[in-house]
Amino acid sequence: MDYSPPPLFKQGAPARVKVTVFAFLSLVLLVVDAHMHVLNTVRQVAGTVLYPLQMAALMPRDAVSSMGGYFSSLSSLQNEVRELKSQQVAQAQAMQQAQLQMAENAHLRRLLEAREYLPVASIMSEILYDARDPSTRRIVLDRGSRNNVQLGLPVIDNAGVIGQVTRVFPFTSEVTLLTDKEQAIPVQVLRSGLRSIAYGRGRSGLLDLRFVAPDADIQVGDVIVTSGLDGMYPAGLAVAKVMQVEKVAAGAFGRVVCQPLGGVDRNRQLLIVMSNVARAPRPAEPAVAAPVHGAGRKNLPKMEPVPTPPLAAAPLPAQGLPTQPGANSPAGTGTGAGAVAPGAAQPPAAAPAAAGTPPAATGTVRPAAPAQPAIKKEGT
Fold first, then answer.
1. CA of 364: how far to CAs of 221, 350, 354, 372, in Å?
2. Three-state secondary structure call for residue 91
3. pLDDT digits (tens, 9 = 90+) for 281-303
4. 0.90 surpassed by pTM
């Protein structure tokens, strides 16, 4: 008899084998994607294909939110309009002053022939949902590469910086929030001009200014803005406000904790700043030519020949020879101790030898060595 199960109940390989195979395949794909980045194209294609399904999955939520807005009471809308009108009246004077200052600033720049800073373009976007990874701080916007969104563009709201675009798809883009642990932004203290780098602290929603000197000019309440040195964030965007400053011992770095000014966890509509404009290339460093031997001597003045100094007095006579001048030598040869160098002035006549005065000479006068008897060699 055949005891095999009917075709309806055949399950193929055991469940443990399937789990093992698929787990091993998942690990291999994770390692390959992390080290070789070969699945970016596959991820973009999958994001494009699944975009309609994502929109269909979000339709119930959007419908519920739209129904709640549609059935909102008339009194709340009237109160909101009244508040907006009062804010508009209060800001009218400030706006007029700002327009006047902008006009004066443009006129002064034209007078000084300075470059005018053009306003940076931006596009409106809406948050679709948070990222799937709970250990990161990321959101997904409804703007992608078809809207000219590129990697690295900053995202802001009406109060300050929110984050930066880190992944782009055709219809959506992923933004890493400012408070993510892997996010860093170059900043500057608005009051003192001190430059630093702000790092995110993860789920706490705060920022850290690391590697700050203990005597740095930072106070509680200082506003931190972007410095614009990285080429992506425009200079002057509000980032955070200093909440805590800890001074440590000399030789160590201080700790500065900041609170982001932007609505990182509040707003729904955001602005993508299109700030990746082409910048002039950095000028090349001038080449230093090697020094040429003798090149610096061309402009030097010609050196005159050094005049020959007068000859010094003759050395002491050898032992066994007479020390008196002119002894056993022809007259005028000047081989004695009192000889005078040629061309030198003749000294006055010497006194008699009986007086015990040595003869004068042009050189240094040295006492005559005592005469020693000649040693007779053997065999002479």
1. 89, 16, 22, 23
2. helix
3. 556 666 555 555 554 455 556 65
4. no
